[in-house]
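Intended use. Records like the one below are meant for learning the mapping from a protein sequence to its folded structure. Do not use them to infer anything beyond what is encoded.
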Amino acid sequence: MSSLIEDEKRLSGLIASGEDALVLFYASWCGFSRSFLPVFEKHACGPNCFRVQTDQVESAEDIYSIDYVPTVIFFSKGKVHTRLDAIPGAGLTEEKLLLMLGGCGLKKEEKNK
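Structure written out for the chain above:
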């Protein structure tokens, strides 16, 4: 499960630390964000997975050039490594998130049944 970041100071400190971090930017009023949040929680697990509600951290949209929510950004060594931006009118899909996670080396290993 991801951790909620509620202020810009904590978010910028996390990124400046240089540690890898997967961050979901979403808005409470956005239907696409609300439907994508459980998908993110399902696949983005671990201590370096976070979510930022842009309603609470309004500056995040300007700082990280977020035009549409939800947006997922993978930060590595203090910089944007990969990002997955919502498609206007469509949001994000589980398939696109899995492709992103695989490309970043973050895909969960499937357990043998």
